[in-house]
Amino acid sequence: MESLYNYAAVLQNVIAKGQTMYGPRFNINKDDKPTILKLLYWFLDDQLMAAEHGIDLQKGIMLSGPIGCGKSAIMRVLNSLCKPDWQFHIAPCERAALQFATEGYQTIEKYSFKAFNLHHPVTICFDDLGVETDINYFGNTCNTMLHILSIRYDLYTAHEMITHVTTNLNSKELEERYGNRLRSRMREMFNLIAFPTNSADKRT
């Protein structure tokens, strides 16, 4: 049984869209190609290729890799190519933390309990997980993303709420930042898809 998709053609479409969004330097090199293909298996809901590569289509994506390797850009490109009902919101983690500083716990509700559209859970991609600062709010220090992701985990198990994240952190650093409990839940919530550790900085 073969996949329904011509991935060589799909990759060319991704590159063309990326160049429209980011300029002619946008490209997919051979080292990054396996990572991009895994993302495409998920976004195209390709059950055959996803199963072959250990990707659970019921989970979200944790896209990791070194600084500047193109994590945020590729998620934005793929999002723009999705059907409207598959598109997701992109929320920088630092912005969410700064919103908490001014709005308090309403921010956490906004990205969790209130992230529903006509009773359907809203998919959100939290960009640059781990760079956000802990916020002091009326004398209490809050790890904003710890709270948001913990609640979205509960909503994932109860309502199939999908979450994506991009991060520069490795598994050890994630556990140090967010604790063993959330790190364990992340394994349930996300497919871990990683750029190679030697992936080139695309911003230079």
UniProtKB/TrEMBL annotation:
<protein>
    <recommendedName>
        <fullName>ATPase</fullName>
    </recommendedName>
</protein>
<dbReference type="InterPro" id="IPR027417">
    <property type="entry name" value="P-loop_NTPase"/>
</dbReference>
